[in-house]
Design brief:
14 helices
Length: 282
């Protein structure tokens, strides 16, 4: 019997990109960018997302994202429904800006989505380098389907990667982004990860890469300086990662859902998106 490979499947660019642990690390950059939007972080603050056991909550959200990518169609819809149910309850007025927010607002959802897509593409380029322009566009188009599952109308999504980046530049230049107290608290999660965090020994290094790859305006907001010495060190780190990554055992190269799919293909009946672990990599 053929297993339901979901909306993407092993031959998709989404699997090729999201299976990489080094691309997962780009998620830290995406979260920092998302947290800099005061209306996005206001909704997260309302749910206590970063207040109670914050790292496990971040992991749970990550696993829902991977269920959409690596899960069956039913699992993808179930994961999206859970996200949508939470978002439906989140609305109010941001005390920092005085602006209203609604977690189902397509424009807020678009910023969250764009940060994830653009950060994944950036870290793929910096640490893997397997995609050309056509591959990057395919990834973007595949991720539009994931966006639709969480109620982002396709018509509001910029249709090409360059247009997506132009949209993001427009948001940055609009002046809406800022490093609020809540955003800085999110940054602290990566700079000083809690004891229970998976991969804790490498997360501080990951946080340095995440901060260093932020757009200059956001680095300034977070108080991060990037002089010539740091730029050289960052370039050397990414170059070394590209060289060393293919030499690593698969357990260090690939995230857990992809590893489990490989085991399932070899005869393990468990589906990668349904295993009980909350870890993103093993």
């Amino acid at each position: 019997m053929t297993r339901d490979a979901g909306y993407f499947g092993p031959d998709s660019v989404s699997w090729q990109v999201h299976r990489e642990v080094t691309v997962l690390f780009g998620g830290a950059r995406a979260v920092l960018m998302q947290a800099a939007h005061p209306l996005v972080i206001a909704g997260a603050r309302e749910t206590g997302f970063y207040e109670r056991n914050p790292w496990k909550r971040l992991q749970r959200t990550l696993m829902l994202t991977y269920a959409i990518t690596f899960g069956s169609k039913a699992e993808a819809h179930a994961a999206a429904d859970r996200i949508n149910e939470v978002h439906a309850r989140v609305k109010g007025v941001d005390p920092v800006t005085g602006l209203s927010y609604d977690a189902l607002d397509p424009q807020l959802l678009l910023w969250v989505h764009a940060c994830l897509v653009e950060s994944a593409l950036l870290f793929e380029a910096l640490t893997v380098g397997g995609l050309d322009d056509g591959g990057r566009q395919r990834f973007h188009e595949e991720q539009m389907l994931a966006a639709e599952l969480v109620r982002i109308p396709r018509e509001v999504i910029p249709p090409t990667v360059p247009e997506l980046r132009t949209y993001m530049r427009g948001v940055i230049e609009s002046g809406i982004l800022r490093a609020t107290e809540s955003a800085r608290r999110v940054a602290q999660l990566f700079d000083h990860p809690p004891r229970e965090a998976e991969w804790r020994p490498v997360l501080r290094a990951v946080s340095r890469l995440a901060f260093a790859t932020l757009p200059p305006e956001l680095r300034e907001m977070y108080g991060i300086s990037l002089g010539p010495a740091k730029r050289t060190a960052m370039a050397a780190t990414f170059a070394a990662t590209r060289v060393l990554r293919p030499l690593l055992p698969s357990r260090y190269r690939y995230i857990a859902p992809y590893q489990e799919w490989r085991r399932a293909r070899a005869g393990d009946v468990r589906h990668p998106a349904t295993r009980g672990s909350s870890t993103a990599a093993e």
